[in-house]
Amino acid sequence: MLPREELLKGVENRDAVARVIDQAELALKTWEVVLTDFLSPPVIAEVQQIFGRLTEVELLAWGGYPGAERQRIGISRREIPTDLTQISVCPLDITGNFLFDHATHRDFLGAMLGTGLVREKIGDIIVLGERGAQAIAAPEIVDFLTGSLIQVRSVPVQCRPIELSELKVSPPKKKEMQTVEASLRLDAIASAGFGVSRSKMADSISAGDVRVNWKEITQASYHVNPGDLISVSGKGRLEVGEVSVTKKERYRIQLTRYK
């Protein structure tokens, strides 16, 4: 048995991580690869962190394409070889004429959940503009979804399975920048990277809208390190790059903003 309470100590997404621990125990017992549902980035980060302490369990995450946000995790004994083909996901094409009634990510997700599905069975959704969207789903819901998803907003749609090679994933838009700050405080770096005032960023931090490496941070004075990923609700992500010290003993920080 895994040390459940020790693993869950201080965990933010306790219920979701507890379910993964249950699945890990099943994998250890059956000597088979056990799959989770699709997990959000914060849950994935916590799971990978706590399972990194264990020597008997192997994790492999996959969401259908490199860089996918929502992913399933394959859990197995470390002695069992695993690869991405064992983490089953099914891409779907959702086509319709959205030229005069534009649909957003929220619209497509809402339409899918409106059929009665739960969020955990759906991975990333890739909006393609006027022609519709593509989505990643758990294989067990594909037949139901292709028969039940017939409309998004006011637009009739057709939903069909496709190959992973047919996914139209665009690389994220990014902007390289540099800032010089007196400290490596979260509010200072995030305000510079996202182009908002420091006081407004401090408000966002205290409101719980800011995460560092997918962990919610509520202290504006939190110390940021090179390699950290800062995400702000509704604004995208900011990667902290190289940090150097100037002659005036200030910090010159390389930043990459993803939209």
Overview of the structural elements:
With 259 residues, this protein is of the alpha+beta class. It has three domains: 4-86, 2-Layer Sandwich (Ribosomal Protein S8, Chain: A, domain 1); 90-166, Alpha-Beta Plaits (2-Layer Sandwich); 174-258, RNA-binding S4 domain (Structural Genomics Hypothetical 15.5 Kd Protein In mrcA-pckA Intergenic Region, Chain A, Roll), CATH 3.10.290.10. The protein is built from seven helices and 15 strands. It has a six-stranded antiparallel β-sheet with strand order 10-15-14-13-11-12. The protein has a four-stranded antiparallel β-sheet with strand order 5-6-4-9, covered by helices on one side. Helix 6 (186-194) packs across helix 7. It is globular. The mean pLDDT is 94. One of its GO terms (molecular function) is RNA binding. InterPro entries: Nucleotide-bd_a/b_plait_sf, PSII_S4, RqcP2_RBD, S4_RNA-bd, S4_RNA-bd_sf. It comes from Gomphosphaeria aponina SAG 52.96 = DSM 107014.
Write the H/E string, N to C: HHEHEEEHEEHEEEEHHEEEEE
Distance between the termini: 42 Å
Give the biggest beta sheet. Answer: 6 strands, antiparallel
> Which structural class do you get from the secondary structure elements?
alpha+beta
Please identify which CATH superfamily of the largest domain we are dealing with. Answer: RNA-binding S4 domain
Provide mean pLDDT, rounded.
94
- Our Rg estimate from Cα atoms comes to 21 Å
Query: What ranges have pLDDT less than 50 throughout 5 or more consecutive residues?
Result: none
Strand order of the largest sheet: 10-15-14-13-11-12
